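Protocol step 4 of 6: structure prediction from sequence.
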Amino acid sequence: MDAAPFDAIARYYDLDLAGFDEDFPLYEELSQRSGGPVLELGCGTGRVAAALAAAGHDVMGVDISPAMLERARRRDARAEFVEADIAALSLGRTYPLVIAPLGTLLHIEPEQRREAFAAAKRHLAPEGRFVCDLPIETEWAPGAQPLVCQWTRIDPESGREVSKLVGMEADVTFLTQRVTYMFDELGEAGAVHRTTSVFELSYFTVSEIMLLLDAAGMRCEGVYGGYELGEPGPESERLIVVAAPRD
């Protein structure tokens, strides 16, 4: 993973996800069951980690982006945060719950997937659970797609208007998307400051997830179609995978 694309947009990350908390009940319930502490892979600016810490759980958040982590530490001093590449993570301890929320694993390069799943297993307690959340992409239009404005919002930090534009170029054969984010912030006298970030997302098939879990020494306990842990179906937008150590 490369920190640079995420450092560039850390300033706007919370604005982008403002109001999204649909996954909080799932991670809160799992944290209660496990008894904690919780290891979050790809914690970003601390959206999930801060919610769990506020609920009284001990949380360790890991991310590769220093700028994201700086905002996470300002967000909640109760959680602990460490800068590291997930694929090379070695904290020297295990956790009863390891989570990878909101598509974190899509940012792992295909050649590092085995290492990333092995790192998750390495940090999983013998009776622990590994939970990852992945989007289900159903519209794979090949080639570059038109740039679209996804939203326009007022940034509470600056009071300025910000628009998010998204461009996409998909490779259907390899299930990858080259994504361009542009955040346009309206300044004084109508001047626009643009922040651009370009990164790749690599999607998984369910079969590949099963193979990666097995190679890492984990067994799948369930594949679900949403945060309520219902059966996956044609209308499902998320894929929630729950795994446990095989040993």
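Step 5 (inspection) to follow. The mean pLDDT is 94.
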